[in-house]
Amino acid sequence: MDTAGIDIGSITAKAALFRNGKIAATKLIFTGYNSEAAGEKLFAEILRDAGIAGAEKFKIVATGYGRASVSFADKAITEISCHAAGARYLNDKIRFIIDIGGQDSKAILLDEQGKVKNFVMNDKCAAGTGRFLEVMARALEINLDEFGTISGQAKNPSPISSLCTVFAESEVISLIAKGMAREDIIAGIHESIGARVAALAARAGLAKPAMITGGVAKNAGVVKALEKALGLTLEVSPHAQFAGAIGAAILAQNLS
Amino acid sequence: MAEGKDPEKEKRKIKSVKKMKAIMTKYYKKAKLAWLTRKKIAWITSGGPVEPLIAMNIIPVYPENHGAMIGASKMGVDLCQKAEAMGYSSDLCSYARSDISCAPAKGGPIGGLPKPNMLICCNNICGTVLKWYEVQARYFNVPLFILDTPFCHTQFTQEARQYVKKQVEEYILFLEKVCKKKMDHDRMKEVGRLSVEAQRLWQAVLDTAQNRPAPLSAFDAFFHLALIVTLRGTRQAVDYYQELLAEMKQRVADGIGAIPNEKHRLLWDNLPIWYRTRWLSQKFAAADACLVADTYTSAWCGALQYIDENNFLESMAEGYSRIYLNIGIDEMARQVIQMIDKYKADGLVMHSNRSCKPYSFGQLDIQRIVREERGLPSLMIEADMVDERFFSESQIDTRIDAFMEVVRERKSGI
């Protein structure tokens, strides 16, 4: 059975194609302001890239904030269930997932069978999300992709005390003005996210083994800070950013 | 569009709604025209002892009920902003903010509440009411009576009983002084009996939701609650709830549920999100979930066990002290678990209400206790009862969808 998962996030849209129970292709584009158009473009492009004709034979599940705008999907399922299914596909022992996306961070507790037992999402505020990092990258005039590498050189992370993104931005600007090393500022930003998300994880009821998914998983600095705050190792899959889309494609296999 | 009416929907409509609307309209008209009938008006907190007012022929008016009306008519943001312009913090309760700004602005759905002759403030529901009522007492330049109910962590001590009973006596003296007449104690006894009867009937109405399908949901209870808050102690409230109870029993006999296809039963905690009750009820109904009970509407009959209907004034001290918001968190969790068992709930939906600190503080602990003792999934919705600026639709939408997936998966699979 051929299935597809379309994950329309607040910043990026991801797709995963499954053929014969295996990942056949993945693709990512920016969502932009029209999530419906993004979904259509993404699906057309991933099929073209993979050289597949016959979109109609795919069973499709949509997820993410734009899940309801994917009109060609057979079903919409939330990110919680999709990340759970995706993480279990990437490692079938996983009991806990931390997903940090563009505007959400989530902690998901699974039972032994991989069913969602409990989940907690960040309160309605950008602290502890990808958007927080984007704002900081802009304030520091550094490409976000370099954040992980740069923070690795930090000797003395600067504490960022504000939880609010807007206040934290002014705090970062004042640290820049004081001449603090940028690697220390970035490491401080990562520790701030780590502390915020660790509290979320504790509320959900932390369990091992744990995996981090979502776009922010690509940032080694956040992963390290989070591991330190949680006191455990987080598994990072090369497919971390696609975990939601992969999970959606897996759940599409249940559609008859 | 008479021919466009959906017979399914019509069948599900609660007929008593019409009557309730008529009673409430009449009640507010009467209050607004009190200056004509020379009746006195008292503003009173929602958990305050209203019975002596009824016995003294004073019209009770509830700023909190008014706050709910402001929220439901989506006028909260404007009034809250007006209060903020007056210098009140946006962290202050949105009922307090909208009431405080409504008085000079004469705004809201009914052009403001009628001017009070006195204010009655009971702090069994929160501490905010103390300052709120002081502000209004200064604004209207009227006497204020404060009934201080000590917090009941686990029990009601003898000292607390004496302390509150003494204040009940002072309360009566206060009313006699303002009204320049003595209280008729026979009348007071009658009002006490009627109050207890109405509370029993209200509990019986809520109890009908134990049936599958539940004939009414928490969203219906939020509406039908108005009389037990405002007019308990009157014959009218007793008559109304008798009628409502009969209608609910008939619905149970006919198998008519509050929602078309009840598959999941949920318990709601905290005040309603007044400006989104329709959206929320449709959202849950679309997932075949009925909110079969809630901790909020049951608060107006939850202390019945402590009240002696034949000795109302004496027993009122305990009844008004041991209400849901004036007890310890362990005790609250115990009541939540009792309701989960009684109504056979599959999950718990908690509204973390930015306005109501005593209700929202401790919810994480209650959530944990429920998870440990009953293993039920729970959902936390962060919002505010009146101030729409604290409601984020797409985030709440995703949380509800994900929660319903968890509830369903526990039973069968997505």
Give the CA-based shape of chain A. Answer: globular
In what order do the strands lie side by side in the largest sheet of chain B?
2-1-3-4
CATH class of the largest domain in chain A equals: Alpha Beta
The count of DSSP E runs of length 2 or more, i.e. the number of strands of chain B, is 8
> Biggest interface, which chains?
A-B, 20 and 19 residues
Number of strands of chain A: 10
Our measurement of the CA-to-CA distance between the termini of chain B, rounded to an integer number of angstroms, reads 38 Å
Largest sheet of chain B: 4 strands, parallel
General shape of chain B? globular
| CATH topology assignment of the largest domain in chain A | Nucleotidyltransferase, domain 5
Query: How many domains make up the coordinates of chain B?
Result: 1
Using the 3D structure, state the CATH architecture of chain B: 3-Layer(aba) Sandwich
Kindly provide the radius of gyration of chain B, computed on alpha-carbon positions and rounded to a whole number of angstroms: 21 Å
Order of strands, widest sheet of chain A: 3-2-1-4-5
Note the run of SSEs of chain A as H and E.
EEEHEEHEEEHHHHEHEH
Uncertain runs of chain A are none
The CATH homologous superfamily of the largest domain in chain A = ATPase, nucleotide binding domain
What is the end-to-end distance of chain A? Answer: 10 Å
> Main sheet of chain A, how many strands, which sense, barrel?
5 strands, mixed
